[in-house]
Amino acid sequence: MNFRGTLPTLILQALAQAPSHGYRIAQQIKERSQGVLDFKEGTLYPALHKLQNEGLVDSYEEVEKGRPRRYYRITKSGRAVLAKDRSEWRDLSRAVTMILGEAR
Amino acid sequence: MTEFENWLKLATRQLSKDSSAQVRREIQEHYELTRDSAIGQGASESEASRLALVALGDPRTANHQYRRVLLTSAEARALRQVRWEAQVVCARPWLTGLLLGLPLIALIAAATFFVIGNTSIARDLLAAGIGMGILFLAPFLPIYTPARGRVFRGVKWIVLTGLLGLAFGSEWLKWSWLLASSLWPMLWIEWTRVSLRRKLPVEQWPKQLYL
Predict the structure, then answer these.
(1) DSSP per-residue codes, chain A
(2) What is the mean pLDDT of residues B58-82?
(3) Residue A2 falls within a domain, yes or no?
(4) What are phi and psi of B70, to 5 degrees?
(5) What's the angle, vertex CA B150, arms to CA B144 and CA B155, rounded to 5?
(6) Which DSSP letter does residue B57 get?
(7) How many domains does chain A have?
(8) What are the CB-based long-range contacts (under 8 Å, 24+) for B143-151?
(9) Which domain holds residue B95?
(10) Interface contact B68-A46, CB threshold 8 A
(11) Which of A48, B8, B154, B196 is most buried as measured by Cβ atoms within 10 A of its Cβ?
(12) Measured between beta carbons, which residues in chain B are less than 8 angstroms from residue A43?
């Protein structure tokens, strides 16, 4: 499914519970959407860098199973943006459901 | 060259050395985790490598997106030049004196020509003095926040446009070839700096990026 433009919000949501690394974020989005939101994983990192440039996430390195991994965590401004995005999405989703519901 | 190496080569095209190393590191890590997971689910090594590569998607799309958020080699070069400029100005007191003195000399000369009645030369010298003042004095002004930087850049472009109007007046169309060729490098530098400001966190901005 094409979900262009919503990937940053989905990343922020994935990071809202706990810090995570890129691979786990990708798996989490795919699993929680039950495979509906299937995206190419090469585009995940540019989105993460963009969020980092905007100060919505920050990153640190941690060793996991003997390998260094880059972990990302949501910042305070990231949480504020996520809350705003969530509210906008609810309004949009409600409006589209009302229209599509009527068109049955 | 393996298919994965080829993927990395395409995905890191035109990126700076540091950006390229970063992309290679994170994609390699991701690729290995995807591969290990596929092997854990019973795939053969070659099948796991193929699946991991498919999961990464088109390297050109990734490269396009990476170039929008990470420094390209041209931008890294521009950043080095910006830092070099700042070092050169700070390390040479005579250059600092020259930069501060030139606009002042132009303004004094403009006043002198105005007093002796040569208003045409006085007007050009006044425009040159103000223009040099805006460009040369900027590194010495207390502009250390993005908000102050935005205000300064707004003022700078308004003043420079006004000065060009003042210097060329109604003949601007006749001299448009000169204006276009001399302003083009300045606009290009400004455009590169806009991109650098977007990509670098504020705490990493050298002074020149505020201006």
Answers:
(1) ---TT-HHHHHHHHHHHS-EEHHHHHHHHHHHTTTSS---GGGHHHHHHHHHHTTSEEEEEEEETTEEEEEEEE-HHHHHHHHHHHHHHHHHHHHHHHHHHHT-
(2) 92
(3) no
(4) -115, 160
(5) 110
(6) -
(7) 1
(8) B143/B207, B143/B210, B143/B211, B144/B207, B144/B210, B145/B210, B146/B197, B146/B202, B146/B210, B148/B210, B149/B209, B149/B210, B149/B211
(9) 74-210
(10) yes
(11) A48
(12) 57, 61-62, 65
ipTM of the complex: 0.82
Question: Which amino acid is it at A31?
Answer: E
pLDDT tens profile B107-140 = 999 899 989 888 888 888 888 888 888 888 888 8
- pLDDT for the residue numbered A8: 92
Rg (CA), chain B: 26
CA distance B99 to B178: 24
Cβ–Cβ below 8 Å for A42 and B27: yes
Tell me phi and psi for residue B47, to 5 degrees.
-65, -40
Question: Residues with Cβ < 8 Å from B179, sequence gap 6 or more?
Answer: B164, B168, B172
Q: Which amino acid is present at B161?
A: T
Q: Which residues form the domain of A26?
A: 7-102
- Interface mutation target, options B18, B69, B195, B209, chain A, most CBs of A under 10 Å: B69
The single-letter DSSP state of residue B71 is -
Residue holding tokens 């002074």?
B207
Domain end (from B70, B99, B114): B70
**Which tokens in the block code for residue B60?**
């050109």
Lowest model confidence (mean pLDDT) among A15-24, A31-40, A67-76, B94-103: A31-40
CA distance B89 to B73: 25
